[in-house]
Amino acid sequence: MTETTDLQTPSEDRFPALFAPQRWEWGGIDAQFALELPPDELITNIHLIGFIGESVVLCRDARGHWFLPGGTREAAESIDDCLVRELREEAGARLLGEPVWLGAHLAVTDRPTPYKPWQPHPRKAWLWGWAEVVLDGEPTNPADGEQVVEVRAMPVAEAAGLLSRGREQWWAELIALAAARRS
Questions:
Q1: pLDDT in tens, the chain (183 residues)
Q2: Whole-model pTM?
Q3: Is the C or the N end of the chain the one with fewer CB within 10 Å?
Q4: Is the peptide bond preceding residue 112 cis, with omega within 30 degrees of 0?
Q5: Which residues are 47's β-sheet partners?
Q6: Number of neighbours of residue 181 by Cβ within 10 angstroms
C-alpha cells in the first residue's frame, strides 16, 4: 500500500480510522491515537513496524494471528531495552538504526488494577514506531509470551491486509502512516 495522499494533508484526515476513538474490550481500554509522544512513565507497551527494504516484518502466533513485534514493558525497563528484547523474542530481529516514533495510543482502562503491578493505572500509553531491521535469528519465544510460529517480511499492502483481517481498519492505516513517514 503506497501512500499517495498529499503529505501536507493532516494525518488525522488521511488516516481517520487510526485517529478515531478505539474500544479494546480485551483490556477494558478506551484509546485514541495521537502524534504527540506521551511521557515515558505512561508507556506500558512498545510496538514496531520493522522494514526490510520495501517489506514489513510480521509475526504469526500459534493461534494463527498476525501481529507487529512488540509488547509489554518490564519493571524499570527503558523503551530502547524493551524494543530490543521484544524484537528478539518475537521476530528474531535486530535494529539496524534508531527507531522513529510515530505516536501513541493514549489509553484509559476501566479494570480495577493494572495489567502488571508496576504499570501506571488507569492511564497508560502504547508507543508505535518504525525502523529498519534485519532478521538474523529465530524468535526466542519465552514461556510468558506469544508463541511465534512464523516470521515473514512481506510487501506493505500484504502486511496491512493481514493485520486488518478481522480487526479494525486502523491497523492498515498505521502501516500506511509508517510507510509514508519513511519515504
A1: 333 345 567 788 999 999 999 999 999 999 999 999 999 999 999 999 999 999 999 999 999 999 999 999 999 999 999 999 999 999 999 999 999 999 999 999 999 999 999 999 999 999 999 999 999 999 999 998 889 999 999 999 999 999 988 788 999 999 999 999 998
A2: 0.92
A3: C
A4: no
A5: 70, 128
A6: 16
Stated length of the chain: 183
Cα distance between residue 129 and residue 64, in whole Å: 24
The Cα–Cα gap between 92 and 136 comes to 6
Neighbours of 148 (CB within 10 A): 20
Q: Does residue 107 form part of some domain?
A: yes
Could you tell me how far CA 104 lies from the centroid of its own chain? 9
Residue 18 within a domain: yes
Q: How far apart are CA 22 and CA 82, in angstroms?
A: 25
Cell matching residue 124:
497508560
Q: What are the grid coordinates assigned to 5, written together?
A: 495522499
